[in-house]
Amino acid sequence: MKKLLLSAAILLGSLGAFAQGGLGYGLRAGVNIPKYSFENGSSESNTGFFVTGYLDAPISPNFSIQPGLSLQNKGGKYSATVNSATGELKQSIMSLDIPVNLVAKLPTGGSGNFFIGAGPYVGFALSGKNKFEASSNNSSAKSEWDVEFGSGSGKDLKRTDFGVNFLAGYQLTNGFQINAGYGLGLTNLAPNGGSQKNRVWSVGIGFGL
């Protein structure tokens, strides 16, 4: 964890030193709609949130590099019905991601600009929770337990993720913005064989200077 934060600090400082023009910054927050992708299908979508702080380092009038730190709520949901009994398992993962995006800004006169970008991210799972609910005609049951991170027998999920994220939105001249994004996980998170990867849609608002 300390190495992850130290690497992020070095990256942010280096980009600030090499940026042409004024170094900006911003904050984005909103709703995540995550799920898992498997070899032969996917889980159902869950609902979470994200909060991202970023620097805006111009490299030309219309292009910037935007490194950041992002708290991301990821996971997935599984449900099944057998005869009169139904069951649902929700897995919620809190991850600290470090994205580095190349962003193009497309001015629209004096009102603001569209922006579109993409870049890699590395994520580190901070915590996780499984919540299970089952019900039938005569009874119901609930339980929850922590996600076990690591590799090998008895573990639920690998802790470190790597992937590519995409973002787009519109920013007004006063700094207010609306945005949408997609996180394409490339790391196989399954600890005991098979394939399990993050897929995260997001929508939100933000402010940038």
Which helices and strands, and how do they pair?
Blueprint: H1 2-18, E1 24-38, E2 41-42, E3 48-60, E4 63-82, E5 85-107, E6 112-135, E7 140-146, E8 160-172, E9 176-185, E10 196-208
Antiparallel strand pairs: 1-2, 1-3, 1-10, 3-4, 4-5, 5-6, 6-7, 6-8, 8-9, 9-10
Report on this structure.
With 209 residues, the protein is mainly β. 8% of the residues lie in helices and 67% in strands. It has one helix and ten strands; from the N terminus they run H-E-E-E-E-E-E-E-E-E-E. It has one helix at residues 2-18; strands at 24-38, 41-42, 48-60, 63-82, 85-107, 112-135, 140-146, 160-172, 176-185, 196-208. The protein has an eight-stranded antiparallel β-barrel. Strand 6 (112-135) and strand 7 form a beta hairpin. The longest helix has 17 residues, at 2-18.
Keywords:
209 residues; mainly beta; 8-stranded antiparallel β-barrel
Radius of gyration: 20 Å
The tally of helices reads 1
Given helix and strand content, the structural type is: mainly beta
Give the low-confidence spans. Answer: 15-20
What is the compact description of this entry?
The chain has 209 residues and is mainly beta. Helices cover 8% and strands 67% of the residues. The chain starts with a helix and ends with a strand.
